[in-house]
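I am still learning, so can you show me any protein sequence you like together with the matching C-alpha cells, please?
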Amino acid sequence: MLTREQLKAIRRIQIRTSHLVSDMFAGQYHSAFKGRGMEFAEVRPYLPGDDVRTIDWNVTARTGEAHVKRFVEERELTVMLLVDASASTMFGSVKQFKRELAAEIGALLAFSAIRNNDKVGLIIFTDRIELAIPPRKGNRHVLRVIREIMNHEAIGRGTDMAAALDYLDRVTHRRCVTFLLSDFLCDGVERSLAASARRHDLVAAVFDDPRDVDLPNVGLVAVDDPETGASLVVDTGDRHVRAEHRRRQLESHAARDRMLRSAGIDAVRLSTDEPYAEALLRFFRQRGRRR
C-alpha cells in the first residue's frame, strides 16, 4: 500500500511529465525512433511525380488506368525501460537523487511512447533482476511503471548490467527501443552493451551528480561505497586530494563515454542539478535529423 506522500509524488511526476509530452516532446519522440518497417496502406490513381516503381500493374491492367501502391511506416514500437536501482543511484547532492531523476525520465519516455500508441515494459535491476513488467499499452500501465521505479525497494546493492542486458535479450523476441537508465558505475559490460545494441535500438540515459566529480571542502569525511560497503576517511580540506579525485572521475567519465560510442549507443547525459527537458529535447531532435 502506497503512502499519501508517495501518491502525491507520483501525481506530481504525472502532471509534470504529461505537460512536457504535450507541449514539447510529442512530435520529437515520433521522429526520433523508427517503426518496424513499411506496411501497405492503399492503392490510388497515379499522380504526376509518383515513383513509377510503386505502380500496381495488376490494378492498372484491370482498370485501364495507372494506379500506385501507397505504404506507410508501421509505427507501433515496443519500448523497454531498463532502470538501474543499485545503491549508488540513491545519491544526489542538489535537487534530487539519481533514482528520482530516473523516475521522471522514465515517466516522460513512457508517456511519450503511449501517446504514440507504443507498448512500454520495465526491467529494474541491481546485481540481480529485481522486477520485470511485460510491455503493454495504456495510461494505467504507465502509472504502474512510474510507481515501481519510484517506490521499488531493491534487494541487491551492486550493479550487474550485463545480466540485465542478457535478460532483456532472452525475454524480447523482436527488436525494441531500449532506454538504459543508469549512472554506469560498473565494469565489464562492453561486450553485453555491443551485443544488445546490435539487436535493439539501445539508448543510454546517463545520470551524474556534481559531487561525483567535485568534492566539497569540508575537512575529514568518512566515505562509504554504497554498493560494496567499503569505507575510508578522506581529507577534503586537502586541495591535492580534491584535484586527484576530480582527475580520476573525469577519466572515468571519459572512459564511459568511449565505451558507449564504441558500442554504437546513443547517449544523453543528465545531471541531478540541471533541468532535463532541454537535454532530452536536443537529443530527440538530433536523432530525428539523422533519420
About this structure: Residues 4-32 form the longest helix (29 residues). The chain has two domains: 4-32+77-290, 37-74. The two ends are 44 Å apart (CA to CA). The mean pLDDT is 87.
